[in-house]
Amino acid sequence: MPCFLRVRLGPGRVWDSDLGVCDFEYGSSDPLTQGLPEWELQPLPNYYVVKSHPAVITCRATPAIRISFRCAGRQVPAKSQTNREMVDSRTRRKTLESTIQVTKEEVSDYFGSEGFVCECFAYNNVQGSSTPGTVKSKKGLVEVANLKKRFRRVPLAVRVKENVQTEMVCLPPEGKPRPTVSH
Predict the structure, then answer these.
(1) Which residues form a coiled coil (predicted)?
(2) Is residue 39 a part of any domain in this protein?
């Protein structure tokens, strides 16, 4: 279980081991911006990475003062996240969107039994509570994409007259994600 350290620096300012210096300990005290976060965007069930293309995982929650990620059972450092904050001018509710990238090396170096699973945690003020309320997202599995070189059934050569359609039957090679043949 990750451990977080929070130190009060003075009125309205804290230092958080995950976030760094924050201007407000738990965000706004405005009741309109309080309440448990609701997910607008959660991790997809499956992501695939290749050498030069990391998986991009994004979570978005409203209202939220913070989003954190846990991948392969470990807390992802806040400095690895890209955050975007949006405030609805009418309701003053804060939506927070946070994104991480997972590389092929990270997935390849992990040997856990569940696979390389990532999930998000959103935090926000809850009226009457001295600590933020937290909600957990669905899990997303990150796997290394692969494709075998040989077709399971190679299309046979056929002679075709010009401007005549023909169908070539084949079975694609095995792979992850499962490859499909398009027409």
Answers:
(1) none
(2) yes
Q: Cis before residue 63, ω within 30 degrees of 0?
A: yes
**Which residue range forms the structural domain that includes residue 68?**
29-146
In a domain, 9, yes or no: no
pTM: 0.70
Q: Which two tokens stand for residue 7?
A: 């130190």
pLDDT per residue as tens, the chain (183 positions): 344 444 555 444 445 555 444 444 444 455 556 789 999 999 999 999 998 999 999 999 999 989 999 999 999 999 999 999 988 888 778 899 999 999 999 999 998 888 999 999 999 988 888 888 899 999 999 999 877 777 766 777 788 888 988 877 777 777 777 777 776
Helix/strand/coil for 32: helix
Q: Can you give the CATH number for the domain in which 43 is found?
A: 2.60.40.10
